[in-house]
Amino acid sequence: SLVLPIFALLSAALMDKWWRGFELGNLTLANFTYLFADSTTTAAIQNSLILSVGVGLVMALGAGAIAILIAGEQTTWKRIIRRLCELPLGVPHIVAGILIILAWYGPPFNLGGTLWLLAIGYVFLMLPYAVTTCEAARGQSDSSLADAAASSHT
Questions:
Q1: What one-character DSSP code corresponds to residue 103?
Q2: Total-model pTM
Q3: Residue 118 — φ and ψ, nearest 5°?
Q4: How many other CB atoms are there within 10 angstroms of residue 127's CB atom?
Q5: What pLDDT is attached to residue 53?
Q6: Out of 17-31, 93-107, 137-151, which region has the weakest mean confidence (pLDDT)?
Q7: Burial of 133 (0-12, 13-18, 19+ CB in 10 A)
Q8: Half-sphere exposure (Cβ direction) of 15: Cα atoms closer than 13 Å
Q9: Is residue 36 scored above 90 in pLDDT?
Q10: Which of 63, 79, 73 is nearest to 134 (CA)?
């Protein structure tokens, strides 16, 4: 079930005219060469790579810090921080995207048409997943590490 959609996409990408079907005379690599010849497409690929790596690093560091912050005995503030991090789960992604555009597009931020606007949207939508993942990773570390760090500090 995983191979069939990939095969369908690959076969459509290799066809010159989709209505002619999958036949030997209809096969071409022109669609792949177009990806790297068109400046708009290469800019989109470059922006996707920049955003994925940048937002991934920011989310790993930020969510790791939040997971460390909300670890241990639960206080009111820790519960509030955890609930605020889970807030994007209750907002549909389309609505969240429109809200982010409306909030950051015009004055005073003027982030419309920039990678920063997309990055803010990605961070907002991925925050609950990153915090949950970092909390699970933090929870798997042995408490003896914290004890060793505390004893070496004094």
A1: H
A2: 0.72
A3: -65, -40
A4: 20
A5: 97
A6: 137-151
A7: middle
A8: 13
A9: no
A10: 63
**Which one-letter amino acid corresponds to residue 144?**
S
Provide the token pair at 73. Answer: 């005995």
Predicted pLDDT at 125: 94
Residue of 33, 36, 63 whose CA lies nearest to 123: 63
Cα 151 to Cα 107: distance, rounded to the nearest angstrom: 51
pLDDT of residue 99: 93
Joined together, the tokens standing for residue 94 give: 């389309």
Give the Cα separation of 147 and 144 in Å (integer). Answer: 5
Averaged pLDDT, 35-50: 91
CA–CA distance from 137 to each of 21, 63, 67, 81, 131 (Å)? Answer: 49, 11, 9, 18, 10
Cα separations (Å) of 56 from 59, 93, 123, 150?
5, 18, 9, 30
d(CA 151, CA 144): 10
Q: Residue 154 pLDDT > 70, yes or no?
A: no
